[in-house]
Amino acid sequence: MLGAEVMRQGPAWRLRFAGIQLNVHFPGLAAGPFAREPVRPGNSDLCFVWDGTPEEAIAHLRARGVEPELGPVTRNGARGEGRSVYFRDPDGSLLELISYARPAADR
Q1: pLDDT at position 92, please?
Q2: Which of the residues 5, 67, 69, 96 is marked catalytic?
Q3: C-alpha angle with apex 75: 22 to 23, nearest 5 degrees?
Q4: Are 71 and 83 in contact (CB under 8 A)?
Q5: Could you tell me the mean pLDDT of each successive run of 10 residues in the chain, 107 residues long?
Q6: For residues 32 and 84, is the Cβ–Cβ distance under 8 A?
Q7: Is residue 47 a contact partner of residue 98, using CB atoms and an 8 Å limit?
Q8: 20 beta partners
Q9: Cα–Cα dist 7/60, whole Å
Q10: What is the model's pLDDT at position 99?
Q11: Vertex 72, ends 66 and 73: CA angle to 5°?
Q12: Of 3, 15, 24, 71, whose CB is crowded by the most CB atoms within 10 A?
């Protein structure tokens, strides 16, 4: 009805809408390779596109007192393959910054 592309990834689902991707996690979903622990009940798993490199994202987070939980790691996002950095907000929601920029060695 909304034109979403629906994909299953293990016990989770991905919904893609014109370059936007929603990851749906179900209760009891074990921590996967995406982070050290699962998304907590009532929290979110949100991903934002980062225009710079993952290394710049890490530096940006650390400069603000936020320690990354995982990354950079290769992930398949709404725009294809990218490199992601994961971290938590103060409420424990899992946040991801994904970069589609090619590493300098590949340019």
Answers
A1: 77
A2: 96
A3: 15
A4: yes
A5: 70 70 63 57 74 95 95 88 91 87 63
A6: no
A7: yes
A8: 17
A9: 32
A10: 96
A11: 135
A12: 71
The full DSSP string for 8-56 is EETTEEEEEETTEEEEE--TTPPP-TT-SSPPPTT--EEEEE-SS-HHH
Which two three-digit tokens encode residue 74?
Answer: 């290769």
- Parallel, antiparallel, or unpaired: how do β-strands 80-88 and 20-24 relate? unpaired
**Of how many residues is the chain composed?**
107
Amino acid at 97: L
* Prediction pTM value: 0.68
Both tokens assigned to 85: 């950095």
Residue 86 near residue 38, CB atoms below 8 Å: no
- Residue type at 73 in one-letter notation: V
